[in-house]
Design brief:
Structural class: alpha/beta
Strand content: 15-25%
Radius of gyration: 22 Å
Order of helices and strands: EHEHEHEHEHHEHEEHEHEHEEH
Helix content: 25-40%
Distance between the termini: 22 Å
Number of helices: 11
Largest sheet: 7 strands, parallel
Amino acid sequence: MKIVVLDGYGLNPGDLSWDALKELGDVTIYPRTTEEEVYQHCVDADIVLTNKVVMSAEVIWELPNLKYIGVLATGYNVVDTEAAKDSDIVVTNIPAYSTDSVAQNTFAHILAIANRVEHYSIQNRDGRWSSNPDFVYWDTPLVELAGKTIGLVGLGRIGMKVAQIALCFGMEVFALTSKHRVDLPEGVRKTTLDGLLATSDILSLHCPLNRETREMINANSLKKMKRGAILINTGRGPLVNESDVAEALKSGQLGAYGTDVMCQEPPEADNPLFSAPNVFITPHIAWATFEARTRLMNIAVDNVKAFIDGKPINVVNK
């Protein structure tokens, strides 16, 4: 089997090993692949692994040897799964590898906004505390999470983990979810989107991106939120209208925005969020802990091995 990895650097910048994958076939690993290079890199491949490189219908139809596409992520919107199915190509993804890491990143953003640790650390390195007349100072709001209401849009594995952590902080937890009320864990209450918008001190997005959820956070929904509320997005960038979020931050309607994802990645330098106040942006790293990437690599290899053995797993285009 000829195996091609189109964008291996994101998963493995050098601290993991490809050896287990190399035992399964003739492996070529490209750190990155441009749109123009996709066909050239895949032309003789039986198996293609991709993270963010798009496998369009046009590319798929031009690759007669291709039998399997493995997405090195949970979301698989980079692959035209219908075209793959029509061509008898199996498409798999990597489920549930980053739950703990993404939930951790969610609370890293919440705590960064609530406590501003980095802000004070930088100030104190510059001598602010050393020259202060009192033993204490603060120049930002400091927020206690206990008793605050967190609203979760989506209650899958990650949303559920965030709910568990929030309960440990003593927070009130509400969720927009398809789960029945009786199936929710103790302490988590089901409500509507309007209910979340009206009551949440912190609103955190953990739903998939689809027609219904694209730009669900926009000028209209932001007006329904409590003034000064915090918005967290570790789901997908296009769940929000970034221009509307920036305007809400400038007006004070939104108190802060913490996000690990953007509508375009990498974002344009003139993205309105970069000039808005109280924005906390990390570069799509919630999934990227060493532990999560190790799990991802192991599952990716298991997926390929299962396909070669004729018993594919984690198939998304049955």
